[in-house]
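Q: Please design a sequence for this.
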């Protein structure tokens, strides 16, 4: 990777942004030199790639108004003084008005930047059909003492199981400790079916290889094992979006990968705001280019 830049998200010409940012020089990631303005540059540059994963679907945000070294909190509902470009969404399954959060365009994403949203976690379903997920996420979360190579092996194992069920899996770094294996779905099955499918997958793998995998959240049992977290696949649950930044040291991002390059990746935080754009401009092809045409139905 080229040496990272500081203060800016990417090289090259400035992309057009129309939403004014207050305090654009505020440091969100002091260690990496990433400012609010630098974060806006990053998202403007990768907007065509991130947009299909975050537009017109409910979002949960991790907000850090003073940057990663200050207070932080998750935000799932609209708030007083919210940027005008952020949409409010009303859950059709509830009688009460909840005012969930969503965006419709690049201006909305810039509104999230202005609001210090350093992580973007979308639902697995779009607003056009709240009750039928259009993706399945298996979050591979390594416990203490698990080598990175074992996480890679686990992703390949999940890939084989999903492919055997007729799905087309894709892989990305989480930007934290592990990997996410994501299968695009035709939005036909409901939440309960998708959750049951992913739970069966996790429990089967844990039963087959109990020394390697675990399907329960219990931390006391996770040392030396990889948690196969299937709970991302239930109504209202979220997982970090592809290309979203993470509120962690180094300004890592959740980066889509090709299966062929997976063995060359050295860790989940390898890609950051400072090197992501360089990676994307030097790739011969988008590793997730076929994601939205690869949707398959889950079989009961």
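A: Design:
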């Amino acid at each position: 990777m080229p040496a990272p830049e500081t203060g800016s998200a990417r090289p090259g010409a400035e992309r057009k942004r129309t939403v004014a940012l207050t305090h654009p020089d505020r440091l969100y990631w002091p260690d990496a030199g990433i400012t609010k303005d630098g974060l806006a540059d990053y998202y403007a540059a990768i907007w065509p790639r991130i947009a299909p994963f975050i537009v017109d679907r409910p979002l949960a945000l991790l907000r850090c108004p003073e940057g990663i070294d200050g207070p932080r909190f998750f935000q799932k509902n609209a708030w007083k003084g919210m940027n005008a470009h952020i949409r409010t969404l009303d859950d059709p399954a509830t009688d009460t008005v909840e005012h969930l959060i969503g965006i419709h365009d690049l201006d909305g994403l810039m509104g999230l930047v202005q609001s210090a949203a350093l992580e973007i976690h979308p639902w697995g379903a779009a607003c056009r059909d709240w009750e039928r997920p259009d993706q399945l996420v298996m979050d591979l979360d390594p416990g203490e003492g698990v080598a990175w190579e074992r996480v890679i092996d686990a992703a390949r194992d999940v890939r084989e199981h999903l492919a055997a069920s007729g799905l087309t899996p894709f892989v990305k770094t989480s930007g934290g400790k592990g990997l996410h294996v994501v299968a695009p779905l035709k939005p036909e099955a409901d939440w309960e079916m998708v959750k049951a499918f992913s739970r069966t997958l996790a429990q089967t793998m844990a039963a087959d290889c109990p020394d390697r995998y675990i399907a329960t959240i219990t931390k006391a049992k996770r040392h030396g094992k990889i948690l196969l977290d299937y709970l991302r696949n239930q109504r209202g649950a979220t997982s970090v979006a592809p290309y979203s930044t993470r509120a962690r040291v180094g300004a890592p991002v959740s980066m889509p990968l090709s299966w062929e390059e997976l063995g060359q990746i050295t860790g989940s935080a390898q890609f950051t705001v400072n090197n992501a754009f360089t990676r994307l401009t030097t790739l011969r092809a988008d590793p997730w280019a076929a994601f939205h045409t690869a949707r398959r139905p889950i079989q009961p």
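Q: Thanks. Anything notable?
A: The longest strand covers residues 135-142. Residues 1-14 have pLDDT under 50 and may be disordered.
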